[in-house]
Amino acid sequence: MASTTETMGNLPSGLGICTTIPDILYLPELIFGGLVWILVACTLVVPANPQGWVMFVSVFCFTMTFIWMCIFAFGVHRNSGRWAAADFAYHGLAAFFYLSASVALAKVTLDIKAGTLYNYRLDISAVVFSYVATLLYFIHTIFSAIRWKSF
């Protein structure tokens, strides 16, 4: 694995995104974001407004993270400091979005105790995965900020 000091000033491309921090977090972000998306889509949407926000955040972040990962994998960024700043800005926004969605989803899950046990378990799983996705995006934001400042 490449050391952090060697790669923090450069934006990786190709398979380099699988060996550098914070870019190695793309796949877990996609996995946990996809799980949130699937679990919320499987549950009964009783208060449509908070659940709709959770769905928007999970679908938006899943799609944008996949596009962002492809941009880095195919080398479109050309190792520019602007891309490092954009990476930091996107992951910061995604962490904020996921935090707001996680809090809304947790509130809805706590309020719905009269539903079926199956839906309640799905909602609890979605809350846990949503907070894990929030943590992953937050960690990615911190390391992206460090990389951006080292340019």
From TrEMBL:
Its main location: membrane. GO terms for biological process: myelination. GO terms for cellular component: membrane. Residues 17-149 form the MARVEL domain. It is found in: Membrane. Coiled coil: none annotated. GO terms for molecular function: structural constituent of myelin sheath. The keyword ATP-binding does not apply. The chain crosses the membrane at residues 24-46, 52-76, 88-106, 126-146. Pfam families: MARVEL. It is a multi-pass membrane protein. This is MARVEL domain-containing protein.
